[in-house]
Amino acid sequence: MVVDEPDEDVDERESWLTLRKAMVDFLLIRKRLFPSQAFLQNMSVRGGPNVAKSCYLESLLARNFVLKCACSAAGGKASEVFVPCLTLKTSLDTVIQHRVRECDLQLPESYDVEAFATYLHSHLHRRENVQIFAAFWKHMSTAKHKKAGKPTAQEKQRKADMLGKAQHLLDAEKHGDDLLEKFHATTKRRTAHRIEEVKTEDGEKSKAKGALASVTCSYHYSGPTTLRTRKQASEFSAQRMSRRVQAVILPHTHDLDIENSLFTLIAQLLEKLDVDPAMPADTRKALDLCAQNRARVCAEILSLPGSRGKQLLVSTFYGGSVSPELQKLDFAHNLQKVSVHCKWVAISCLSDEYRAFLQDSKKTNPEGSLLSYLYTACEDVILSHWVQFLMETFHPQHLSLHYDGVRISTVDAVSIADVCTQSEAYIKRMTGFEVRIREKTHKLVLQAMKEAAVAGPAVYAADDVLCKAGNCIPHALACLEMLEPGHMYVLNNGTDQNNVYMQQRGSRTYRQCMNMFGCSFSVALLTDGEVPEGKFLLHCENGGRPHCVGVHVTQESEEVGQQVTMWDVDGVYRLSVASFTDALLRGTDASTSVGFWLQADKSEDLDEALERLLDLGAGSSEEETVAESCDEMLAESCILEEGGVQEEEPFEWLDEEGTVVVEEALLGKLQAEVDERVTKSADWKSRGTMPCPLCPFRTFHRRDHWERHARRYHSRRQQYCCSGTKQLRIVIALHDADQLHRRRGRNYLQRSADVLRRSVRPALSAKCNAIDKHIRLLLDGSGPKVVHAEYLKAGVTARRVGRLWYTHSFAEQVWQEMLLHHGKAGVTRHAVSLFKAAALRPRLLVKALNAGNHIATLLPTHVNAWWPLVEDIFSSAACQSLRADLLEKAIAHGECSYLSVDGTFKVCLPVMGQAHFNASAGVRASFPFQDGEAYTRVLSVRGRSGAVLALEPSVGESPPHIVACLQTCLPQAGLLQVEHLATDSPNENLLAELTNVCPNLKALSLDPTHAAMKYEQALVGKRSAGSRLLRSFLVKFTAHDPNVESNIWGPFYAGGPVPEVRQEANLRQHILDVSMSKARARRILQSAEQLLIWPTRIQFIEAVAALAALHSDDMQKKIDGSKFTVAKFLYKLTAADKVEWLTNNLRYRQFLPASRRILLLSGTTANEALHAELNAWYRQVQQMHRSTLALKLGMQTIGKLLSHQTALHWPTTVQMPHAMVLAAATTKPLWTKRTWKLRVQEQRESGVEPLQRLVQKKRDKARIRKFKRPASTEVRQRKRTPFTLERRAGIKRTGVHRRRPASASVG
Fold this sequence. Notes:
By secondary structure, this protein is α+β, with helices and mostly antiparallel strands. Helices cover 46% and strands 12% of the residues. The protein has a seven-stranded antiparallel β-sheet with strand order 15-21-20-19-18-22-17.
């Protein structure tokens, strides 16, 4: 620090300088950055000032020899710490203008867009590999902490770096695509994928290979400080590209770099500043050694490859820790001293910025950050002069900044060596700094290895199958002696799916090869350069052409050391481990290099994250792609063996427009069947009755009459079926069953006639063609059947819903399936999970097919046909009686003595005809169902042991709505039994209104767990140490202490003001201010751990205040969906009335017998768990009528209550989950034969009554229709899949065909 020295005696001044130097030397020996106050007051220095030691501190501060700072900067235990300030004989502003931030720099850049497009698209697996790496790093960044306890700051930073790597990979792909789109680069997606033309900014087109696209890039200073920093590109440019991309898109440029910039500039800066006290000689020697010959330091002193050594030196300079192996080196300790001294210099130069950094919570290492700012300011001064020189002297086509270097295009008539020499001289003249500029060469990992290796001939000939494009992984395995002769047969099999995959894409994945050849891999990243002995596969990105080589690391001898043998298609390479490691670290594609070690034991499971890397693909190392050869190989693999029979044509059902024409094909089969029957009619006997083989009941006495009948009625106009559309639907069902079983069927008219002939009893008239009016579809337990209409009226005990008839066995199946699958009746399009796929029709279809029913596809397809049937079953007297019986038994066991009531809104979001409950009043008023009528909540009521007593849609969650819900769902006996009720928001009004309908209600209580859930909302739903501690506090409100024998809390709290004592107010203020000392907080928590319950209100408030003090980081976070912070929320939670509502839990529980207390619910926690289930069941529901919601909730209530009552009152010898208990309980028939017969007889006598839900649905639809907005006229293209391909209509399934006049002859 440059200061004006006060007038004082020379001897006295020298004594203070002696004291400061002794202090600095002592701290450097200890490698301590901060001296404590105790240290400064107890120093004893020979030749020091003749004053009392207690005056040392004030004098040092007055002379600006130390700087006072907060203890958090050093992380020590002292109340205050200080940092030494050094004297600068030359001010920093004299050496470099470190506060100049004006920047209007604009530089030209030019890109080889053709080469870049080739890099992006030439190999199909390159981009997929990028996605795999990004997913891998994302998974690693979210992996759970393996060790117990809170993750350290280093671990958090490491995870943040991993997430940054993933995002960097994805951003690079996006920026690459944007760049190509910007320059309108068009690639020809075949063979070499070369660019045909590139349009530059001025609109001119160039067809020459390697045409360059030019842009102008502007730069600005980044960061909020007033210091000079590095210049950053204002938009995506060469500066932001990775080394891999730079090597591809900038092949016409040279990367010029200030060699060893950090140590070179810092060493000269210290000399120019002339710091006092100066750096000790041995410490300065370490700095000079790093500045003058860093390569020697890495190789001889650290014994590390250059790239790893450089990382270690830079990390140590900025304050990083040193590994235990290097702790033994004096050089490492001296470099740590260099770091301490340089940080003092930075603080002395930039003391104001240092004070600001200390106040910035994001600066975890303010001293290191300040040192970095000092270096970058010096670096930017040099770079600014350098760029000015290059632009004015050479006028390059491309010039981009890369922090400590530049990229410059080739300069005509000037060599790069001359450019470097002239630049060094100019920088020396303008800044006084001596630098050495050199050109950096960027090589791929495999290129660097091959250059450093001794090459030998290839193992396999170039025309061998292992050397073909796409077979680099099998080639590497073969060279490592991991393939057997049988594996070569698999590799040559052109029809193998893995080989077809390779032929189409020109690459294989490691997982495919692992399955093909029966080997096992363990995966490891090679970013640290550690290479153990053994055989492994090395995967590299290889300039956009992912490639794999075989590697074997062996120990030759003690003198030679470890050697590496590498097998590639073009030869065998041998090199040292040091060269191999250096190439792994220096290669431009080093970050994407992965090792796949061969293991003999296949039982060892891979880590979930590393297992993802098995999907990486690798192919050819050559520049040309393999598309043409792949097309030829694929064509050969499609040729059938001689004499083979092709049973199926892959796309015989598609026309040229991609429309399925299966109905046309079926009509063709029906025509062929009719023609065949007519042709064979000559063989029929001429005497007796002759049945029509194509009709179920028609008979003829003469052959010519039948031929005339066949030609006239079994024609294309009649769709070859004269009986009506019901026989035709059976034809379609038989055809579809054959298709689903992957078999070719025929004779569908005859087979459909046989089905009708067997099932329709008594037989219909033999003289009538049309039979649709006389037959009905009956849904039975064994599948659909076609029966005589009169038989339904008198013979079978079937019930009717609309046009559907169903039997007792079918009703039992529907009852079981709907309960087991939570009321899912419709067929969902995207069946990716159990609940989505659990649709009623597919499950019943499987049962029918397993029962041998050939017309199972006649089951209704639309949900509008299913819901009335479901409603008829669940609104039956038997079902309602079961629910009432279950509820009555629950009340008999005291289930209603304790209730928990809560609401959820997500289930109501899909309800049609109403706005979102959070919408504005104007929006809500524009919908058919408005405030006071629209369903906004589903209220759940659970009993003492967790039984689901009710799930009821409600207009809201206010006291009147809760009371109405209880009155609707509980009988009078249940309301009289209620003694206690838990809710999320107890209040006086709710208690008063509930008392009117539940006269024995004693009190309400506040759910304790809800507070912890609110806390975790501020943490994005995750638990922290603070939230876990809060949960442990809240559990004490629902616990039991056997030592408490009397009511220590007083009577139940019923609302109203609660006097708050001063101590409580002070403790609550501690929560709000986070002001309690941590020592006191720890003592309070130790005492709280000994408590089973909260004896007093103040103990709970005190514990929450301690929580806030120890977890202050959480306190300022805002709760999602609220304007309150966590501290404010806890402040409100500890209000006297809130705590009293919580204490009601203890007042009620403490004196209950253990038999009743063991299953007692903890507030509304069970309701929240139930809501999570409900939200999962309804998550994929897009639209739903109000009546349908009520029906579904009723079914789900019965399922929950049936399972709960069975498990609680009919326990089994082994524990069973809810699903198994419910599955077993629903096997008990809902109706006996007698009750079902009575139910059918009741319908026959009274007629088919309208279903209440269906009636309400029609009314709702009528109201919604009035408010319905006009549909959009835009035609949206739909993505087709094999399940949603458009069908060309060729068959009329419903209605009556046009017939000839009655006078026409029937034949």
